[in-house]
Each structure stands twice: as structure tokens, then as C-alpha cells.
Amino acid sequence: MPPRPDTRERILQAALALFNQAGVPAVTTNHIAAHLQISPGNLYYHFRNRRMIVAELFDRYEAAVAGFLQLPRDRGVTLDDKAGYLEALLGSIWQYRFVQRNLEQLLDDDPELAERYCRFVERHLLSARAVYQGFVDAGLLQMTPSQVQDIALNAWIVITSWVRFLYTSGIRSDRLSEALLRRGVYQVLVLEEGFVADAARAGYAELCQRFRAPLAEPFG
């Protein structure tokens, strides 16, 4: 059997599960301690407050995104790479969905996290542009440099707003699913549809089919 996680790691895992389920504002350090059946003092030994827990979980979210949002070093990109980017993106957003659900409040509550998030956005928008340019260079997308920049920004807006869109559209937390998040990735693919090169259209259509999940009316 694998070793049991230490108390610090158990706190982070429990906090992540509770934040994702109920949202950060509804979860206190006392809730986390009670969930783990440890004393509040034991939790405070590792984390002085909820803000510190959120900051460390954000570290992990940022590392997850940085780990996949980069071009292959020794070859051009393919449609298989695009599928890999999308699956990795979906996985990181699903695992840390509390970040996007409560983003404005998290940044208002923690000025240091707000600064970090701004740098996070700047870095990964640059990475997203480089990835899109890689698909252009590989002949899979046909875009001007200006269009690469615009599509990268629009894709970022859709992806980072999708969880909040679902909640504000009446999706309860117990009904949020990975399938509904897949639809957000599909909406990004729709943004790119007019730029797909003829030779890539069949494979691109398969990608769209893979990620399209049904939504309730009137969204379709």
C-alpha cells in the first residue's frame, strides 16, 4: 500500500475537495479540520489561515498549467498534440475548479494572490500565443499574427469564465460535471473553426465531436 499522506498534504487534499464542492467562502479552516477529524490547532500548525491554503493550491494549479502549455521541442505540433493540450487543460480546470468559481473574491481577499494571478495570466497568454503560432507554422491553422493574438485572448476568456458561466446559468455545485467542462473546451474550438486549414478539417471535426457535450436550453 502507498504511504498515507502527511497531515499537511491531507489538509490540502481535503481543502481542495471542500472548496470545489461548496466554494471557498463557505469553507472555513474549522470545516476543514472537522472534515479531517483533527483539531484546529493541528491545522494552524501547518497553515495559519485559509488564505495560505488557497495560495498553496493555486501554486499547484499554476504548475499544472505551466506543465502542458508549451510546444514540443524537437518537432512540429499535430492534431494529436491539440487533443493533448485540451485534455490537460480540462483536467487542470476540473481539478482546481474552485479557482475560477470564486476568482474575483479570492483576488479581492488577497492582494498578493491578485498580483500573482496577473503574472500568471501574462505568462500563459504568451504561451497560448506560441502554441497557436505553432499550429499555424504546422499548417493546421491559417491565421495572421494579429489573429493569433486575438484568438489566444478570446480562448483564455472563454476557458477561465466557463465555470462561472455554468454556475450563473443555474447549474448547482452537485450537478457540475467534467462533461459540462468539456463543453467549454468545445466552445474554444468553435472560435477557431473559421481558421482551420482544409487538410486538417476532418481531424478537427473529430475533435469537436469529442468535446461537445449537451447543455440545457436555451444554450443548446
From TrEMBL:
GO molecular function: DNA-binding transcription factor activity; transcription cis-regulatory region binding
Every HTH tetR-type domain range: 5-65
DNA-binding region (UniProt annotation): 28-47
Keywords, ordered alphabetically: DNA-binding
Keyword Hydrolase: no
InterPro entries reported for this sequence: Homeodomain-like_sf, HTH-type_TetR-like_transc_reg, HTH_TetR, TetR
Recorded superkingdom: Bacteria
Position of the signal peptide: none
Gene3D superfamilies, sorted: Tetracycline Repressor, domain 2 (1.10.357.10)
SUPFAM superfamilies: Homeodomain-like (SSF46689)
PANTHER family xref list: HTH-TYPE TRANSCRIPTIONAL REGULATOR RUTR, HTH-TYPE TRANSCRIPTIONAL REGULATOR UIDR
Protein name, UniProt field: TetR/AcrR family transcriptional regulator
Organism: Stutzerimonas marianensis
